[in-house]
């Protein structure tokens, strides 16, 4: 036996060691699992942070969906409130049925089950609303994409309009430049026309002056020939003083005519000097001065003589030849500018003897100057040709009208004929440019009209998009205000229910004192079951609500506030509490408003989850006013809540109700019967 025990002990020891080894292995495995779990926990924390970040991103993405979901939840809350009202009504009916018979509780439970089934149907309806919300979200995303696409199209159209406007500005600049060039050409043409008229007038005056000068020269030649003829054939007699005086007077008259002709020639030569080279014309002036001096010397030499026979015929011939050479030079001279015709004063009378002597002395001098005058004539002709070439060159460069021949009168007469085709070409070019200008203006006006039409189309399309977005935003605001109004109403109802719960014992004690029932039984109800207590509380709340409803109606009829309160009721039956009522009445006096809210829920319990267009349109006014006033009243009630004051006010009002009503005892007995039935 001892050996067996030892073996067993050894076996147990071995088994224990094996178990210890297994335990150690398991502990190591557990430690390893713990480490693995810690690693997994760390990895899970990292994944959690990543998921949190992703969730925050998704929350920002789903914020729009949440708004619509909140509106659907508000509708679901409305349905839940309707369900609660139905449940309360069901509880009230159950209370009435319990007063008649207790067997109706099973039917009530069935009805509650049906209500739960209705709640399940509400959940299904919420699911359908969620699906509709998803569809609306997809529609919103699609609309946003379309809006972005339309914005891109608007930007592209605006860029195209800017390009077309710049092209129109370039075309207007080109037209403006063309108009300026046309005006410059017209002014240039007018200036050249005036210059051509001046040149024609100047050439005409020069031709007249040349003819006058030729007449003067011919007269001078005639007078010179007459003087020479008189010197050759005249018979001068010494005897007879009257005949001497007559001959001297005739000779003096002829010399005076020659002197005047010489003076006119000198003035004409001065005019030629103004239009030609002064160096070349200076010699001609000197020669004419010599001729004049010669004639004067001949006149002075013949003044003291007795007869004129001594007058040298060679001097007269030299004088005649000099005058003829000057005349030929002037005939070949260029056109001259008008010069003033001044008549020389008549020389002093002298005798014919002095005139003859002067003519004889100056005749030789005039003969020497004939050759020099001929050379100067050739020089003047060459200078005149050069001046004509320069004038032709300037005309060709300024007008571009063609070439002039440079032939005095013929060129001046042909210049008008040459300008006619150029004027016609300019008129044609002007008409063509004006036509192009009108076409460009028409094109610009057409482009402007198209741009205006495009801008109007863009504005109309953007207005429609903005109207759709505004409608959606208005729906969102209405749903948000509806949600806030429901929250404020829920808080207010919870506050009222809490107040009723606080003053429940005092109210029941007062009712017991009214009915002659001791308050000891109220304390024994604390040991009742929880379900019974909950049911009793619901019954008492319903009774209090009905009594408060009756109280509010009586008070409205007595104070005449029914009209003002009824005017504040909207189409859904939701009455708003005015500011005066909220300030003067206690927070617990507004159970009537709770009952009115319950009545609105009762009247709207037959409605579906979808609102009609009319209700959706009126929702803005309904919740903009109701939510603000109800929220402000609820907040003021929460801030100004005083339990002691509320309880005192409630008890005083119950006592006033006791004084007003004559059947207080009967009401108390009804309450006692109801409690007894509930207890049984």
Automatic annotation (TrEMBL):
> Which keywords does this chain's UniProt record carry?
Coiled coil, Cytoplasm, Cytoskeleton, Phosphoprotein
Q: Which GO MF terms does the UniProt record name?
A: molecular adaptor activity
**Key word 4Fe-4S present:** no
Cellular location(s): Cytoplasm, Cytoskeleton, Microtubule organizing center, Centrosome
Sorted alphabetically, the Gene Ontology cellular component annotations on this record are:
centrosome; cytoplasm
Query: Where is the segment annotated Disordered?
Result: 94-117, 222-241, 559-620
Q: What is its main location?
A: cytoplasm
Q: Name all Pericentrin/AKAP-450 centrosomal targeting domain ranges.
A: 475-555
Q: Which domain of life is it from?
A: Eukaryota
| Comp. bias intervals (Polar residues) | 222-234, 569-581
Q: Name one GO biological process term.
A: signal transduction
Which residue stretches does the UniProt record annotate as biased composition, category Low complexity? 95-107, 559-568
- Return the Basic and acidic residues bias intervals: 597-613
Give the Pfam families listed for this entry.
Answer: PACT_coil_coil (PF10495)
Coiled coil residues, start to end: 9-89, 168-216, 370-397, 423-457
Q: Does the keyword Transport apply?
A: no
Write down what this protein is called. Answer: Pericentrin/AKAP-450 centrosomal targeting domain-containing protein
